[in-house]
Amino acid sequence: MDLGLSDEQALLAQTVTRAVENEASISVIRGLLNDPRGIDLKFWRRIADVGCMGLLVSELHGGSEENGGGLVNAALVCEVMGGIPQPGPLAMTMLVAQAIDSAGSLPEHSELLADLLSGDAIATWAIAERGNWDPAAIALQATATASGFELRGEKSAVQDSGIADYILVTARLDGAFADFLVPNGAAGLVQTPLASLDLTRRFGHLTLDGVRLPKSSIVGEPRQSPAMWVDRLDQAVILQCAESVGSAARAFDMALEYSKDRISFGRPIGSYQAIKHRLADMKLLLEACLATAAGAARDFGQGAAPTALASSAKIYIAESCTSIVQSALQIHGGIGFTWEHDIHLYLRRVKTNEFVLGSPEWHRGRVCAALHG
Hints:
Butyryl-CoA Dehydrogenase, subunit A, domain 3; 373 residues; 10 strands; alpha+beta; two-stranded antiparallel sheet; Butyryl-CoA Dehydrogenase, subunit A, domain 2; Butyryl-Coa Dehydrogenase, subunit A, domain 1; 50% helix; single chain
């Protein structure tokens, strides 16, 4: 992602790249595919040590966000992590930490925020209901009780809910919107694992049947408008776009290398026009995706239509990255369709990202609504 990086940003990208390549290679990721947790906690703490979890958190509370540039830095990290499809809710943990940071300074929240930034705790965000990612459509109900709150309802497609220590659940409270920190294993919380095309990630369906929480569980003040949650969703979409571009870029490099090494009729297959032209088309799409992801991260919050910016990026990048990786697989020929080859892991990641956080069709509707009201 070419953003005219500062020396500090370039160092961040290089540091995370080295950590991923040295400690979380594709062979390591393959070794986690059948692990129920699906994550290497040692590596999770390693990238936390680099400061990844606090990129959207103010320096006052231990993060490194400054002058609105945190989203660019977070997108850089997500792009690197997409280069070797990493497990774990990295972007979601960043966003939960941001939510806690923005909400205030309850002692309980400060302790959890410190644990999130150090990698000692993992968090994820539960927003979708019945496949709908629109914050305004939230139906899960929170009711005030004498000792705190009670939550009833369901959440779908919650990323890595099974390994998260806390799940940030967005609910309705007396008609307003509010966030609640739900500890994993809370009484009344039922998790149903979901099958996923992306084998490197886990998703769950949550049923909250009278989950009772203390008063300290609420994060920030309830709000009548869903604008804050729309903003969080938009940031999640932009970080997902960066990750998808990282996966597509690595798949393209794999296809390019293979086209030079694979000999057919005495010539590298990359010397044939059909392969040359396909690679050229893939490179054109990839460069456009890189520019789109960079622009979305850089310009978010600077204009009047952040939702249109995020959703437009999602529409173009989701469909284009899937096309790039599908072409990369086809260039590999028969070997690309085998379990032993790694290319299918990249296709699984970008195809899953195409639909998680809203399909391109859904985002087209958001763009129309954002621009034309």
